[in-house]
C-alpha cells in the first residue's frame, strides 16, 4: 500500500463513520417523531389539484382540503360526479374549480396544467388518486383492461407529475401525494396487474425522491407522500373478503381522506391506512422471509374475490 492508497482508505473510512453517525441521528429523529408527531402544516393558500374527485376517496379529500382553506382543483373524467363535488364544496363556502379530463391522455394533462395555471394559479399540492381495479384471475383479464389500468394507475401518475412538478421546482415549494395500496406492498390473488401497478406507484415515488434529492438545485421544499390504503368502502372493491372483520374493517372513505391529509400535512414519506397496519407493513411483512410472510397472509385471509364488471 503506498501513501495515496492509505489516504484514500482513510477518507473512505471517515466518510463511512460520518454516514453511520448521521444515519443513527436520522433513526433517533424518526423515533422522536413517532412519540411527538410534528405539527401539521397549513394548506391555506395552497392550490391542491386532485385526480378522481367525482367519487370515493378523491371527493372526500377535496371536501377536506377546501375546509382547511385550500383552493381545490377537482379533476375527473366523470363530469357529473365532479360537478356534484364542486357543488358540495361551494355549499360549504369553499373555494374550488373543476375540470373534466381523462388523465390517461398525456396531451390533455399538459393542456390541463396550462389552463389551471392561467385560471387558478400554480398547483402547489398534487394528489394522484384516480385509479381502477379489475378483480379476476390474470388469465381472465383482457388486454384492453390491463392496458387501461396501467394507463390510469401508472402512466397517468407520471403525466401528472411531469405536468405539475416544473412549477414546484421553480418555487422550491410543493407536495406530491400518490395513492398506492397495500397491493403495492404484497401480492393478492385476482389482482395481479393491479398489484403490479401499485408496486409501480411505490417505485415511482421512491425514485422521484432520490432524483429530487440528487438535483443540484435546492429542492428540499418539495415533499412527497405515498399512501398505502387497505380496503376502503368506496365500491372499488366489489367483493372484499375479510376473515377477521373486527380486526381489519373496511375503512370509510372520509377516514381514509383524513389519514392521507394528516400524513401530508406532517410531511410523512408514507402512510398506511388503517394506521395500525403500518407496523405489519413496515416491520413484519417487509422484514420476514417471504415464505413466513405468506403464512401470515394466509392466516389473515384478506383480499378480494373475482367479479366480472
Ligand atoms: N377503495 C379501496 O379499497 C382502495 C384501496 C387501496 C387503494 N385505493 C386506491 O385509491 C384511489 C382512489 O380509489 P377509490 O376507491 O376512491 O376509487 P373510486 O372508484 O371511488 O373513484 C375513482 C375516481 O377516479 C375517476 N377516474 C377514473 N378514470 C379516470 C380517468 N381516466 N381520468 C380521470 N379520472 C378518472 C373516477 O371517475 C372516480 O371518480 C385509487 O388509486 C385506488 O387504487 C383504493
TrEMBL record:
One Pfam family named in its UniProt record: adh_short
One of the record's GO cellular component terms: lipid droplet
Subcellular location(s) per record: Membrane
Predominant location category: membrane
Signal sequence, start to end: 1-23
Annotated GO MF terms: all-trans-retinol dehydrogenase (NADP+) activity
UniProt topology in membrane: Multi-pass membrane protein
Keywords tagged on the record: Lipid metabolism, Membrane, NADP, Oxidoreductase, Signal, Transmembrane, Transmembrane helix
Role, per record: Catalyzes the reduction of all-trans-retinal to all-trans-retinol in the presence of NADPH.
PANTHER family cross-referenced by the UniProt entry: PKSB, RETINOL DEHYDROGENASE 10
Family (UniProt): Belongs to the short-chain dehydrogenases/reductases (SDR) family.
Protein name as catalogued: Short-chain dehydrogenase/reductase 3
Amino acid at each position: 500500500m503506498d501513501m495515496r492508497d492509505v489516504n484514500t482508505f482513510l477518507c473512505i473510512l471517515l466518510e463511512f463513520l460520518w454516514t453511520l453517525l448521521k444515519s443513527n441521528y436520522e433513526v433517533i429523529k424518526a423515533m422522536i417523531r413517532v412519540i411527538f408527531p410534528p405539527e401539521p402544516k397549513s394548506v391555506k393558500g395552497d392550490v391542491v389539484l386532485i385526480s378522481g374527485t367525482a367519487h370515493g376517496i378523491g371527493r372526500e379529500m377535496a371536501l377536506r382540503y377546501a375546509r382547511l382553506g385550500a383552493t381545490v382543483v377537482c379533476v375527473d373524467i366523470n363530469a357529473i360526479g365532479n360537478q356534484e363535488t364542486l357543488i358540495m364544496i361551494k355549499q360549504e363556502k369553499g373555494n374550488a374549480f373543476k375540470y373534466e379530463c381523462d388523465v390517461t391522455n398525456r396531451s390533455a394533462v399538459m393542456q390541463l396544467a396550462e389552463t389551471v395555471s392561467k385560471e387558478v394559479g400554480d398547483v402547489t399540492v398534487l394528489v394522484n388518486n384516480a385509479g381502477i381495479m379489475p378483480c379476476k384471475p390474470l388469465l381472465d383479464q383482457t388486454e384492453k383492461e390491463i392496458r387501461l389500468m396501467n394507463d390510469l394507475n401508472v402512466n397517468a401518475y407520471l403525466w401528472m407529475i411531469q405536468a405539475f412538478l416544473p412549477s414546484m421546482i421553480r418555487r422550491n415549494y410543493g407536495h406530491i401525494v400518490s395513492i398506492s395500496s397495500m397491493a403495492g406492498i404484497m401480492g393478492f390473488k385476482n389482482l395481479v396487474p393491479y398489484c403490479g401497478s401499485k408496486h409501480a406507484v411505490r417505485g415511482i415515488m421512491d425514485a422521484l425522491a432520490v432524483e429530487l434529492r440528487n438535483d443540484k438545485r435546492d429542492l428540499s421544499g418539495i415533499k412527497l407522500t405515498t399512501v398505502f390504503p387497505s380496503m376502503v368502502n368506496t365500491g372499488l372493491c366489489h367483493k372484499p373478503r375479510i376473515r377477521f372483520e373486527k380486526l381489519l374493517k373496511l375503512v370509510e372513505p372520509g377516514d381514509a381522506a383524513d389519514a392521507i391529509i394528516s400524513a401530508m400535512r406532517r410531511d410523512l414519506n408514507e402512510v398506511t391506512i388503517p394506521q395500525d397496519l403500518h407496523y405489519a407493513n413496515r416491520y413484519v411483512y417487509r422484514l420476514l422471509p417471504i415464505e413466513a410472510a405468506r403464512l401470515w397472509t394466509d392466516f389473515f385471509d384478506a383480499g378480494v374475490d373475482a367479479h366480472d364488471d
